[in-house]
Amino acid sequence: MPVQGVGTGRLLASRYALRQRRATLGAIEVWAATDSTLGREVSVTVLPVSDPHAEPLLEAARATAAVNDHRLVRVLDVGSRGDVAWVIEESLADSTSLAELLADGPLPPEEARRIVGEVATALDVAARSGLHHLHLTPHAVRRTKAGLIKIAGLSTAAAVEGTTVPDHAEAQRIDALGTIALLYAAMTTRWPLRTTVPGLEAAPRVAGVVAAPSELAVAVPADLDDLCREAFTRSGAPRTPGELAQRLGPWSHTLVRHVAPKPVAAPTEEIPRIRAGAADRAAATSGGAGAAATPAATPRPPRNVPRKPSHREQRAHDKAAQAAEERREIAARRRDPGFLDVPEALDTSTGPLEPPTPLVAAPLEREGRYAKAVIGVVAGAMLLAAVFAAVSLRGAVQDMSQAVAPAPSTSATRGPGTSTTGPSASASPSTSTDVGPIEFTGVRALDPEGDDSENDGGVHKATDGDADTFWQSEGYKNADYQGQKSGVGVAAKLPRDAEPTTVTVTLGDTPQDATVYVGSSRSIDSATKIGEFTDATGEQQADVPEDARSDARYVIVWVTKAAEQDDGKYRAIVSEIVAR
C-alpha cells in the first residue's frame, strides 16, 4: 500500500524531489530522487511515522550516519514531518551487488579476498561503535565501477526485520561468520550457511560438513581454503571482524580483474523450491532498510567461454599471487591464540541470520536487475559507526585504570634527531641485547581522534621483518595533521608471556616526531612512555623499564609530526617495529 501523500514530484525537507519508486516492503518505500540543492541523485526511504519500524529505523540511521567510513553507504539526512518519515542516502546507481557479480561465475580469489577484507574492516569499525549487521549476504555488498566496496544494511537491516540484537561478543561472532560466508560464496558461487540466498545454490555437504572451497573451484589459495574449513568444520575461526581482517591481510588496493576459473561440478543436497517473493525476502534482510525492499534479480546465464586475460590483467594476477605467497610466510605470526567454534555459534545464533518475511516488490525499469540504492543502503551506512568500539574494548579490559607513570629508561638513537626518555635517561646499553626478536601476534593502525581507520590494509608491513617495506598513514596537508588530531600510529600486540626489554623502531628517511609506549591496551592514555624522538629518521631504540615489562601487551609507536612526501602531502611512516 502506497505511503499516504507520497508520490512523484513530492518534495521532502524542501529539498529532495521524488522521481521514481524503486521498491517496496510493506509500508516502506524506496525512491530515486534528486537533491535540488546540490543537483545530485539520491536514494530516499520513506514510511509512515505510525509504522512500528519507523522509530527503530530512524534511530539506526542516525547512529550509522555518525560513522565516517568510505565503505559504508552514506546517510545524508534523516527526518520526519507530518505523517511521513524518511532517510536520505547516497545513490548507488553505478554499483553492482556481489550477488549480481556471482551470476557470471566466481570471482578471482584475490578479488574475493579484497572485497571481504574491506567488508571485515568496515564491520570492525562499526563494532567499535556498538553497531552490527547481523543479516550479511551477497546482496548487502556492492562494488562500484571504480572498484570501491560499499556495505548496505548495517544496523538498519536488523531494525527493519525487528531483530533482537544479541550481546556485543555474540553479534561480532555472527558478523565474522557472515563475512567468511561471503568469502566462500565469492570463490565458489555457493552459499555455505543454512539460510537461503536468491541467485546462489547451497554449498554441498559431505557427512553434514560444508565442502571446502578447493573442492568446488581451482586455484583457491591455501590460506583462504583453511580459513573456510576452520569456520565450517568445527575447528575454530576468527571471533570478530577485526580478527578476520587481520587474518586476511594484506590485500590488493585495486580491483583484481583476471578471469577466475570455473567451479568444479559437485553434487549438492536438495534445496527447497523458493516461494514467490522469497528472493525479495533475502535481499531485504541483507540490505536492511533500502535493500530490504529490493526486488530480486533474474539470474543471468553464466558466460560459457571466458575471455583471455589481457596483459595488464595477467600482471595484476601475478602480483596478487606474489602477495599471497608472502602472506602464507607470515600467516603463523598473525593469528591470535583464541578462536571461536563457529558452527557451535551457528547452532545458538541462527535467528539473526534467518531470511526476513516475504516482500512485495515493486517492478523495476529494467527486468532482471536488483534495485539499486534501495532501503538496505540506509541500513548500511549507519552500522559502520558501531563496529569501532568492540575490538578496542578487548585489549582495554586489563586494568586500564592503573596508569603506569613514566619510569626511568634508556634511549639510544641510531638515526638523526634527538631523543628523550624518562627523567633519568642514560646512555647505558640494554642488558638484553643478545635476546632474539619477539614475534608479534597482531598489529593495528591507530587513529583514535579520527575515524579509527588509518590505512589498515598496509599496517602489517610495520612488523613483517623487512625494513624496506613500511606502513604509511593517509595523506595530510601539513605535518600536524591539519590541527585535527595529536597524532596517528601503530600498535603491535605482544604474546601473553612476553616481557620486552628493548624496542627498536625504524622510521622513514624524512624527519618525524614520534613517541614509543608499552602498555596493557592499545590506548596511549594508560601506557608507559619509553622513548620520545624529535626530527628522527632511521632506527631509534628505547629501553623498557623493568616495572613496565610484565604489563606490556602492546608496543605503540605514536607519530606526532608527519613526514613530508614527494607529492606534497604529509604522512606518518613506520618501517619496522622490533621488540626484544
From TrEMBL:
Sorted keywords for this record are:
Membrane, Transmembrane, Transmembrane helix
Q: Where is the composition biased (Low complexity)?
A: 278-297, 408-433
Q: Where is the composition biased (Basic and acidic residues)?
A: 311-338
Which residue spans traverse the membrane?
A: 373-393
* Ranges where the record places region Disordered: 278-358, 405-467
Which SUPFAM superfamilies does the UniProt record give?
Galactose-binding domain-like, Protein kinase-like (PK-like)
Taxonomy, superkingdom: Bacteria
Read off the CDD domains from this record.
Answer: PK_MviN-like (cd13973)
Question: Which named protein is this?
Answer: Protein kinase domain-containing protein
Please name the source species: Mobilicoccus pelagius NBRC 104925
